[in-house]
Amino acid sequence: MPSMDSLFGVHATALKLREQRMSMLASNIANAATPGYKARDLDFSSALKMAEGGSSPEAAIRYRMPIQPSLDGNTVELATEQTAFAENALAYRSSLSFLNGRIDTLTRALKGE
Asked: Structure pTM?
C-alpha cells in the first residue's frame, strides 16, 4: 500500500501548514486592537522542511517585527496581516486543487476508467 506522501506528495503536508498559518494570521487580525498583542506568523518554507524531516514545525513560528510599532505594544499591522492572509489563502486553494485532482485521478483508476 503506497504511503500518503507517495500519493499526494508535499501537498498534504503543505495544506496542513497553510491551515495552521491561516489560523495564526486570522488571530492576528482579530487582535489588531488588543493592547500588548504580539503578531505571529509561520515561516512556511522552514515549517515545510521541518515537517518533511519528521520534526515539529512549531519552531518555524516567529513574532512579526512591526514597521511602525504602536504605543500600546501591539505589533499587528492590519495591512500586512490582510495581505499575508490573502496570499496564504491563494496558496491553500492551489494545494487543495492539486489534491482534489489527484484524488479524482486515483478514484478513476480504482474504478478502472
From this structure: 0.82
